[in-house]
Specification:
Helix content of chain A: over 70%
Helix content of chain B: 55-70%
Strand content of chain B: under 5%
Strand content of chain A: under 5%
Structural class of chain B: mainly alpha
Number of strands of chain A: 0
Structural class of chain A: mainly alpha
Largest interface: A-B, 44 and 48 residues
Strand order of the largest sheet of chain B: 1-2
Number of domains of chain B: 1
Distance between the termini of chain B: 32 Å
Oligomer: heterodimer
Number of strands of chain B: 2
Chain lengths: 196, 205
């Protein structure tokens, strides 16, 4: 495979290969939580942190434990356990030492375990054969891209509260259509950089 | 028999996981650019949901309450791994086309939702049917969306060209925005056809 500059991956994962708008990952919490800008931003921060850390952890475990023992087929189970364990650990640490942070992020942490963006990034990184630095920046970039999308959506939905939307389209329906328009706008970035 | 009929109408129609409960839409959006991909994904999901519900239900009396989520995730992952290995062995092209989305079935909230909401408190056979019908409902919506996306985007159905050369392809339909618009429209239609009894059900995962 062609060696891609890690920084290119970083920029691409924010704009052209945005987790939500191009890969459809993390949609569930995207739709459920994008009501308030502050909460969306907190969730975005938590996701970015967990994504960056778990992509590195999963990279190390996959290449130094699973591959040498020919256990690649176990990666789904291992990745999901690593993610769940890491989230649990982070929750305990911030509850103990950073009380303020716990109150703003705490409730979102369990939600993150089932956020498909996290598992998705780990799987993409294996399929595309990234090295450690590429995986780190891919994880970080994807997290930032996800945050960008959810905060933008929260901002738009705030304005929508006063709009008159057809009955059946309220809630998830209109959110999806706006996401479509956002994805359309993000297609404009597609000339900048390209991965896969 | 009545119970089965009721489950069937709930899973496929009235309580459809995709347009009613807004669950598992990540993969619903990602694989629907081609009908074939959607069909394989749907069959895979039916298999995983049905057997995970069955297993969870069989083990429900022996699973300690506080670790049951972890146990459920492990059961689901096991079936997903079986499916992944099966696809890799017998249909490598499809395995490449679906990419990470096979693995992402684990985090598909439909399965976890059914395990928690139904299989936890019901006998194995009914749980199996419940899982299968929910999977069927999911597949139906996927095929519906994929039908329009493939037809308008490539002019073909299941890879067979049906619209003539004069047809101008709507490339947008097979790109991400098309998926969002289609699902939004499906939800809109569904909510008009089945006006809601209880608005604001659980949206999570």
């Amino acid at each position: 495979m062609v060696e891609i500059n890690p920084l290119v991956i970083f920029v691409a994962s924010i704009f052209t290969n945005n987790m939500i708008l191009a890969n459809f990952l993390g949609m569930c919490s995207f739709i459920a939580v994008s009501n308030e800008i502050e909460t969306s931003f907190s969730l975005g921060q938590a996701v970015t942190f967990v994504l960056t850390a778990t992509s590195v952890l999963n990279y190390l475990i996959y290449h130094y434990v699973l591959v040498p023992y020919n256990l690649e087929y176990l990666r789904f189970i291992i990745f999901i356990i690593v993610i769940a364990a890491f989230v649990q650990l982070v929750e305990m640490i911030i509850e103990r030492y950073f009380e303020n942070l716990y109150y703003s992020l705490g409730i979102f942490l369990p939600l993150i375990t089932v956020n498909c963006a996290i598992l998705g990034v780990s799987l993409f990184m294996i399929i595309r054969d990234y090295n450690l630095l590429q995986s780190l920046l891919f994880g970080a970039g994807s997290g930032i891209g996800w945050t960008l999308a959810i905060v933008a959506m929260a901002g738009i939905r705030k304005k929508l509260k006063t709009a008159s939307i057809p009955k059946g389209l309220e809630g998830p329906g209109i959110t999806l259509i706006i996401t479509g328009i956002m994805a359309l706008a993000f297609l404009g970035f597609s000339g900048i950089v390209k991965i896969q | 028999m009545n119970e089965i009929k009721k489950l069937f109408s709930l899973g496929v129609w009235k309580d459809n996981p995709v347009y009613r409960q807004i669950l598992g839409i990540c993969s619903a959006l990602a694989v629907t650019n081609l009908l074939m991909n959607s069909l394989v994904m749907g069959i895979g999901l039916i298999f995983v949901t049905a057997f995970s519900s069955l297993t969870v239900s069989l083990l429900r009396k022996y699973t300690p309450k506080h670790i049951r989520m972890m146990v459920e995730v492990l059961i689901i992952s096991t079936y997903v791994i079986i499916m992944d290995i099966f696809l890799k062995a017998y249909w490598p092209e499809m395995s490449d086309a679906l990419g990470p989305y096979v693995g992402l079935i684990i985090t598909n909230c439909i399965i976890m939702g059914r395990c928690e909401a139904y299989a936890q408190n019901n006998p194995p056979f009914l749980s199996f049917i419940d899982g299968a019908t929910m999977g069927l409902g999911y597949t139906a919506v996927l095929l519906f969306i994929a039908f329009f996306r493939e037809l308008l985007g490539f002019g073909s159905l299941f890879g067979i060209q049906v619209l003539g050369d004069g047809f101008m392809r709507w490339t947008l339909m097979v790109m991400p925005p098309g998926a969002f618009f289609m699902l939004g429209i499906v939800i809109w239609i569904a909510r008009n056809v089945f006006p809601d009894q209880t608005e604001g059900g659980p949206v999570n995962g």
